[in-house]
Amino acid sequence: MATLKVPEVVPSPTEDSERLRKAFQGLGTDEDGIIWILGHRNVSQRKKIRDTYQQLYNESLIERLNSELSGDFRNAVIRWMCDPPERDAKLANDALNARQKGIKQLQVLVEIACASSPHHLMSVRHAYCLLFDCSLEEDIVSSVSQPLRKFLVGLVSSYRYDKGAVDLEAASSEAATLHEAIKSKQLDHDHVVWILCTRNFFQLRATFACYRQTYSNLIEEDIMKCGNGDLQSLLKVVIWCINSPEKHFATVVRDSIIGLGTDEDSLTRAIVTRAEIDMLKVRTEYAYMFKSKLDDAVIGDTSGDYKDFLMTLLGARM
Amino acid sequence: MATLKVPEVVPSPTEDSERLRKAFQGLGTDEDGIIWILGHRNVSQRKKIRDTYQQLYNESLIERLNSELSGDFRNAVIRWMCDPPERDAKLANDALNARQKGIKQLQVLVEIACASSPHHLMSVRHAYCLLFDCSLEEDIVSSVSQPLRKFLVGLVSSYRYDKGAVDLEAASSEAATLHEAIKSKQLDHDHVVWILCTRNFFQLRATFACYRQTYSNLIEEDIMKCGNGDLQSLLKVVIWCINSPEKHFATVVRDSIIGLGTDEDSLTRAIVTRAEIDMLKVRTEYAYMFKSKLDDAVIGDTSGDYKDFLMTLLGARM
């Protein structure tokens, strides 16, 4: 379900490194060449290019890209070239250090905790410790206030069972627990935290389905009627990231382009982090939700190398 | 600080496997031979023996030991031969499935979370998922009641920064937060959970030292005056496991032998899990706390192969 397109015959990491080196040299940088190579390589191929480039030229490819490129194009290429756990650790840290820490920023933590694998989340926590000399959860405790804090600490601390074991009886009883909390507008009840932060994703999807069946409403719609401000928005992101990440990321793209100006950070994040995972589904969902094309939205709101790079990741340029 | 003694020249895993095979064959089992070999090998040597034995004889060494040995001796040898993360995952599961779930059982979870490395704790959580088809924290939520539940979920979910970064200002302010919670007998306050479950061990030791300096008492002594039953006992174990695990394990050994009968499970756990880590310190602490020798206590309360095996791990038999 990726939009990333990798050529059938992939050049060796040495060939790619040599071409990149050439693209950096001489007067001006050959941005097209860089997009052509890096925008058509998957995560393990990019890692090999990084390693090979370092060995061949005794310099960091990422640092070189950083000095050769600029603006949103640079940010996008560098996010794309980082190892995913390190990239996400940096995204999490940026969110926690943002001047404003609303849902728009904090949802990044939910994406990492709920829209990727338990193993990836652990690697992000490990990378976070290495990069920032403290744990991710310590930084959440010191920079996010209640009641979001306890959910975010719980979500990023989870190490969920990652196979499809579903206990239908538990799903039914936990749907009732969630319904009770929603009815009494106690979204921050510890039981809600435990259910959302410890159950495996398959189990939670069954619980949400059970909720809909029993109470005839989508759980996220009932949550949004609680009048609980930021918390209800956060929980909606949690439920979407678990249940249908494509809905969430379609909305991230949409929010980044509507209104005056573009939120390039969010747009870059959505495309860079999902191009190899489920961007095809995100594109379909976008069309369904917003009755327009995601690709047109990106083309309309971006320009130059930045646009070309995003469109390459979206599979539109081969 | 280990009591385990490994010979200067260690036989190859193949030689060890062949000797073990011989010890199993014929009429009756050669328990002395088994103790002699396995009781003098460290964790990586034991892993190699397990792998080599499996390759040579196409049977699991642990299953063979299980069928050859019996009673407390068998339990101790098998705990010793398991990979440590798997062993601890099983210990945690036993604790959560015990009919009675008091501090005596639940402290095992604290030992795993607070008296071993963050990396080991992660490996235990991974092993738990593989062995029991659900996460460790899910089982805690479903089988432990409040207020212990929220501490245990927080403790086992931690992935603490593992280098010695200490922020003295934070230590002082968090010592004050802990003091406030103790004074108002609100040990289960979320702030107490966050401090104990997210801060790195070096930081927490500084916080406890700061507490002592500012309030002229050991924090665990003040906690024990809160009249908070099981929670105060659990928090004392948390503080000891972080601050001075040797005190905790000396007490586990002591509690396992005093009174009528012996609690072999606890005695085995303390010696098997710490023989390679800090058993020398536990022995010294035991002498200091109880004015008697740990080795004498073990000799007095155990017998036969079980005694010989434990004493081998304690370094008394070479």
Q: Into how many domains do the coordinates of chain A divide?
A: 4
Q: Biggest β-sheet of chain A, characterized?
A: none
CATH topology of the largest domain in chain A: Annexin V, domain 1
What is the CATH domain class of the largest domain in chain A? Mainly Alpha
Architecture of the largest domain in chain A in CATH?
Orthogonal Bundle
Q: Separation of termini of chain A?
A: 17 Å
Spans of at least 5 consecutive residues with low confidence of chain A: none
Q: Number of helical runs of chain A? A: 20
Query: How much helix, percentage-wise, in residues of chain A?
Result: over 70%
Secondary-structure-based class of chain A equals mainly alpha
The H-and-E topology of chain A, N to C, reads as HHHHHHHHHHHHHHHHHHHH
Q: What is the oligomeric state here?
A: homodimer
Keywords (chains A, B): Annexin, Calcium, Calcium/phospholipid-binding, Metal-binding, Repeat
GO biological process, one term (chains A, B): response to salt stress
Pfam families (chains A, B): Annexin
GO molecular function, one term (chains A, B): calcium ion binding
Report what the structure shows.
The structure is a homodimer of 318-residue chains. With 318 residues, chain A is mostly helical. Chain A folds into four domains: 13-69, Orthogonal Bundle (Annexin V, domain 1); 84-157, Orthogonal Bundle (Annexin V, domain 1); 168-228, Annexin V, domain 1 (Orthogonal Bundle), CATH 1.10.220; 246-313, Annexin V, domain 1, CATH 1.10.220.10. Helices cover 71% and strands 0% of the residues of chain A. The mean pLDDT of chain A is 95. Chain A binds chain B through residues 122, 125-126, 129, 133-138, 141, 146, 150, 153-154, 157-163, 165, 190, 194, 197-200, and chain B through 122, 125-126, 129, 133-138, 141, 146, 149-150, 153-154, 157-163, 165, 190, 194, 197-200.
